[in-house]
Amino acid sequence: MGQGDGWEGVENEESRAEAAFQGVPGCGWSTEREELVRHLSSGERVFYCGFDPTARSLHLGNLLSIMGLLHAALDGHYAVALIGGATGHVGDPSGRNSERDPLSSDALFENAISIDLSLQTIFQNASDMAKETDAERPELCDHLKLVNNVAWYERMSVLDFMVKVGKHARMHTMLGKDSVKSRLAQPEGMSYAEFSYQLFQGWDFVELNQRYLCTIQLGGSDQWGNMLAGIELLRKCQDVQGHAITLPLMTTAAGVKFGKSMGNAIWLNEDMTSPYQLYQFLFNTDDADCAKLLRALTFLPLDHINNIVADHTAAPEKREAQRVLAEQVLRLVHGNEGLERAQNVTKVLHSGGSLAQLDEGDLLAVGIVP
Ligand SMILES: N[C@@H](Cc1ccc(O)cc1)C(=O)O
């Protein structure tokens, strides 16, 4: 990405659609909603959301943030997915009650590559899906970008960090973050590294603003403190008003974190959760959760979703809403081929067939490496 490739986040006078996130219930905004809507409707904006490579794969819970980035791009804005190759070393204390075990540089590097690949696939699948509904639309991938924060942190000296970032950071503000307060209330306390994590994530916002005029950060609700750290640094270092949008933690009607099956995460990498398993997980979601999940995890228009839900309510035993949900998510995460394989395996296994009837690709879709 460089000058002139459409990625400078150029302001234009053209009025854009309303906020991109009206379909997602439970969002939070750092500024007045009107201010964010004004910001979005007065130019093409650049969003970002970060993912630390703490595991080899992203999980279903991350899909909501990815959807957020895709909605922004579909709406004509730009979106950056940031992989936290550097922040993964530091360790985000948000939402955790104990210190993270450090991961080796090799493990973080491999995880980052694997997550990068999976995001590229999802971006491409989303682009293909968008083309199917509107062949004329500009390539979605041109509005999506992947970066790794190693790019700036590997070249930044400790002194640089203290001068550029540390000098702007107030102890009082840092100590006031929930992620810090809750840990300091425990006898083990926290390491200096995890304490300073907020500044690393905060500085990412500044770097992305300098590079791409990024002004909006998306993240789960546990990221609030880190996102505010970014907004503050952006104001002090760039004299720019940043915005943060928090996405709710997805829970089921039963109050359980969505995206876990019997305590285990549902992964987006097919070698960790096979397309067949992902399909089955979604196909088995509760009727009570379907409407919400269709809104949050598919790009289907709201009136289309309402029709599906109305038909489903009339004949829930057909599991039509679950089928559409599973199909849409499978296509996004594993493409049409992944969906076909998952459907084929479902057909064979659920009609009393055996694994012997499956070809190599199908076996892969069940999670068996032939
Ligand atoms: N802290 C985020 C990941 C992240 C990393 C770097 C960022 O700049 C932004 C977000 C998380 O754990 O989910």
From TrEMBL:
Top-rank EC class of the record's enzyme: ligase
Protein name: Tyrosine--tRNA ligase
GO molecular function: ATP binding; tyrosine-tRNA ligase activity
Alphabetized UniProt keyword annotations: Aminoacyl-tRNA synthetase, ATP-binding, Ligase, Nucleotide-binding, Protein biosynthesis
Nuclease is among the record's keywords: no
UniProt lineage: Eukaryota, Choanoflagellata, Craspedida, Salpingoecidae, Monosiga
Family: Belongs to the class-I aminoacyl-tRNA synthetase family.
InterPro entries cross-referenced by the UniProt entry: aa-tRNA-synth_Ic (IPR002305), Rossmann-like_a/b/a_fold (IPR014729), Tyr-tRNA-ligase (IPR002307), Tyr-tRNA-ligase_bac-type (IPR024088)
EC number: 6.1.1.1
GO biological process, one term: tRNA aminoacylation
UniProt superkingdom: Eukaryota
Catalytic activity field: tRNA(Tyr) + L-tyrosine + ATP = L-tyrosyl-tRNA(Tyr) + AMP + diphosphate + H(+)
Native source species: Monosiga brevicollis
NCBIfam families membership: tyrS
Keyword match Nucleotide-binding: yes
GO-annotated cellular components: cytosol; mitochondrion
